[in-house]
Design brief:
Blueprint: E1 4-9, E2 12-17, H1 22-28, E3 52-55, E4 58-61, E5 72-74, H2 78-94, H3 109-116, E6 133-134, E7 140-143, H4 152-156, E8 166-169, E9 176-179, H5 189-198, E10 204-206, H6 219-222
This protein binds FE2/S2 (inorganic) cluster.
Residues 35-38, 46-51, 61, 63 line the site of FE2/S2 (inorganic) cluster.
C-alpha cells in the first residue's frame, strides 16, 4: 500500500503520509488550521474543537482525524470560520480573561486567535465565574480564571518516571487543573517554565519572574497567529 495519500483542502490538491492527521498534513502543505489544545509531538485529544473542519460534509476535529485517500476537506469556509470564532468567544465569556494585566499577553494563543478573528465584543454574555488563583506551589501560580482545560499540561509535563504531574480535579463545570500532591516535588523550575510556555493562555505562570520579554516583543505582538502559513489560505471574517 502506498505511503502517500492524496486529498484536498478547499479544493487544493494535497499530499500526506498515510496515518498523518489532517491538521499536520495541512501544515505540511502550508495551510493554516487554527488550534488551541494541540501541541506538536504530544498525542492529540481533540478537546478545544477550534480545529474543526468538514470532511466529506461532516464536522471533524482535524487534529485527531487521519487523512484518507480522496478525502475532501473544507477549512476556510464562512461557516467554519464563524464556528471557530464562536468557540473563542465562548472561551472568553466562560472564564475571566483580563488580557491587559496578564503576564501571558502577547504570548497567549487565545488572545492571538481573538485578534485574528477580529473579535471586538463576544456575542455571548460574560459569566464572570468566581474562581481561585492558587499560589501554594513553590514555583508556579495556577490561575483558574484563565484555564481553558486544554489538557496540554496534563499531557506534556511528566516526572522522571513518566508520570503525569498535572491532572484534573473535580467534575463537570467545577473541574480544575491540579498538581498531583504526591509528586508535586518533581515540578522543578525547568518543568514549571515548560508548563508556562506550553499553556496556550495565562493559567500557569512561573513564580518570581515577569516581563522578561517586554510587551511589544512577544510572539504575537508583531505577527498574527498562523502568519507563517500561505496567505491565500488565510481566512477573512
Ligand atoms: Fe483540535 Fe483542539 S486543536 S480539538
Amino acid at each position: 500500500m502506498s505511503k502517500v495519500v492524496n486529498f484536498s483542502i478547499d479544493g487544493k490538491n494535497c499530499m500526506a503520509e498515510r496515518g498523518q492527521y489532517i491538521l499536520d498534513a495541512a501544515r505540511a502543505n502550508n495551510i493554516y488550521i487554527p488550534t488551541l489544545c494541540n501541541l506538536p509531538g504530544v498525542k492529540p485529544r481533540g478537546s478545544c474543537r477550534i480545529c474543526n473542519v468538514k470532511v466529506n460534509g461532516k464536522l471533524m476535529t482535524s487534529c485527531t482525524t487521519p487523512v484518507a485517500e480522496g478525502m475532501q476537506v473544507e477549512n476556510n469556509t464562512e461557516e467554519l470560520l464563524d464556528l471557530r470564532k464562536a468557540i473563542v468567544e465562548l472561551l472568553f465569556v466562560e472564564g475571566n480573561h483580563y488580557c491587559p494585566f496578564c503576564e501571558k499577553s502577547g504570548n497567549c494563543e487565545l488572545q492571538a486567535l481573538a485578534y485574528r478573528f477580529n473579535i471586538m465584543v463576544p456575542r455571548y454574555p460574560y459569566q464572570f465565574p468566581d474562581r481561585d488563583i492558587e499560589a501554594s506551589s513553590k514555583n508556579l501560580i495556577k490561575d483558574h480564571n484563565r484555564c481553558i482545560l486544554c489538557k496540554r499540561c496534563i499531557r506534556a509535563i511528566k516526572d522522571e518516571e513518566g508520570r503525569n504531574i498535572f491532572a484534573f480535579k473535580r467534575r463537570g463545570h467545577k473541574v480544575v487543573i491540579n498538581v498531583d500532591s504526591k509528586i508535586s516535588g518533581s515540578l522543578n523550575d525547568e518543568l514549571a517554565q515548560k508548563a508556562m510556555d506550553i499553556c496556550p493562555v495565562g493559567a500557569l505562570i512561573k513564580k518570581e519572574q515577569g516581563f522578561i520579554i517586554p510587551i511589544g516583543k512577544r510572539t504575537y505582538d508583531k505577527h498574527p497567529i498562523g502568519y507563517e502559513f500561505d496567505v491565500t489560505s488565510t481566512e477573512t471574517l
